[in-house]
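Annotated sample (chain length 724).
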Amino acid sequence: MNSQGPHRAPTADDGVQQQMQYAQEMAALFQIGIAITSGLTVQQVLQSILDECRRILPIDTLYVALYDAESDSYEIPLFFDLGKYRSLEQRKCQVVRSLTCDVIALRSSLYIPDLDKLAAVDGHVAMKSGLAPTHTYLGVPMLICERVIGVISIQSLQIDAYNASVIQLLETIAMQAAVAVENARLYEATKRELAERKELEEQLRVTLAKYTVLFDTAPVGISITDARGQLIECNPEAEDILGISQNEHLKRTYDGPEWQIVRPDGTPMPGSEYASVRAFEEQRRIDDIEMGIVHGDGSIRWISVNAAPIPLEGHGVVIAYTDVTERKRAENELRQSEQRYRLLAENVQDAVWVRDLQGNLIYASPSIARLWGYSWDELTRRSPEGIALSSEAMSATRQRADQVLRAMQENQPIPVERFDLPMRRSDGEAIVIDVLRGPLVDDDGNVVGFRFAGRDVTETRVLAAEIQALNATLEQRVAERTAELSAALSQLQRADRMKDEFLATMSHELRTPLTVILGAAEAMAIETRGPLNDQQKRQVQLVAEGGGRLLKMVNDLLRYANLAAGKTTILHERCSLAEVGSATVHKMEKAAVPKQQVVTCSIVPPELVINSDSEAIMNMLDALLDNAVKFTPAHGHITLEIAMEGADTVRLDVSDDGIGIAPEKQRLIFQPFVQGDSALNRAYEGSGIGLAYVARMAEALGGSVKVESELGHGSRFTIKLPTG
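Output written by the structure step:
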């Protein structure tokens, strides 16, 4: 297939022309050499090859194929066709028959003057990938030390377009191109290697930084030894756990006599049992060796140690240890707690049992046998509750178990449940067990079973039923009695209203004749119908005094009755307490003269004014001062004090040093017709209506009244009224 077209006989002009062409080709080769070797990357070199070939050679189609001997395939990174550059995919020579594969196989140039006449063209894909209808094909291998690394191919639309000089020129270009491509590959490989090395160095730097930070901040102690067992490095956590400084640490070996180490049972641990020694001698990783480090003050720091040999020259082992002192303490406390729990469960009267999720009994306290009357063997062979449950109770138990399992499947919380469980003892006695059921969880919070506690509440439930029946009966009796009392109260309220109305009517009716009697007595006293002797004057005076007392009593009754019946109009007007107090005291001073009592008045501030009912306040003070004069012995003292209390309350105090009121009487004196002394032969007269009036009127004015008294030491009555 390597052929050249027929040539005519050479002439002198042909020789000159050949020499000139040769000179041009050498110059072109020199320029090509400069151009293609100036590229640093394979792509740049290939681009220069194609550009220079297009510049000096008569071509229509041009490509460079790069061959990979390991995969026996080639690719065409650059393909020039119809004035455009493009690339072709990788092709395997064993699979695809092509002219490029032929050049690679021949390891020499391949010239085909007319592709259409190529006998073996069937089966070749050759340059059919090109768009131009080329006829002449020239392919030259790119060789490095007899090794094919690629192919340069040029094609022409003309038939037999290339002569021997073109073939020789392209072969020379191929040699230069092979060297340039190989150099570019070496450059790219070197560049990649440098980049990879730089990346590795950066990764090493980052890794070293991470290692340093991790080593210094790790929450575990870390120590490293050399090949002789000498400690050469430790982190800050190691100093805290081991209780020694870094300098002291690095003076020791991993099995030196300075270490005071004990086993978990408290006995001394020999060096041969150290995790570090075992890892070094056995050349394997040793995990979870628990030991206690005895500090200088005698305290023990418990640690869990892992050790492993270091596969580096000059290094021994790395030792990592965590402080498990708190865990040991917690385990000890848990163990003690479990012992206490077991002791309690085995001695308590209540039954305690535990089941796993499959219903298997994994613990039952001895009290179950005592409570239910079954032997321990019977209980261990069967479910504690199933051995004595009725079919109904067993069905209810299964339903509760199904509900719990559904809740677990739906990741819902499992609550503690309390319920009654009717059972029968081995002797047939029916009992009721109060059962408390709760989930049994492992260290990770997963439900692994259920714990039960049961107590015999048979008697309690019987008593509760009896109490419930008694409560129902009592509630019925209370309802009936309440209805009776409500009816009686209604009657009493009606009677009280009738009494008030009767008092108001009778007081009014009594007042009219009393007024006539007192008027006649007054007329007789001034002797309008003739003179009276001394005895007559005395009788008239007695009539006037008795009538006056009776009139006052009638007026008090009438005033109280009207107030109680809601017939009193309450005024809301300006009220000078100085005027009210002074007038009341002045009136009482006359009544106190016969017993030579001292009545005083204090008003602070003197100009104190409120909005209220002046007449009502005066009537209340009259009643209180009248009582004070009545129950205070001769030469006693009576005081009226009026002052502000807070911002919106006025306080009126009437105090005396009289006989006082017994404590049991104090809560009764504000009721109508009640006196401290209720005997018929009592020493002090009166109707007992004055204090009742004070209490009702104080309430009507929006205030209150109270008494402070000690028997034999006087009394203090306090009225509190709003200022507005």
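Annotation: DSSP finds 17 helices and 24 strands in the chain.
Annotation: The longest helix spans residues 458-525.
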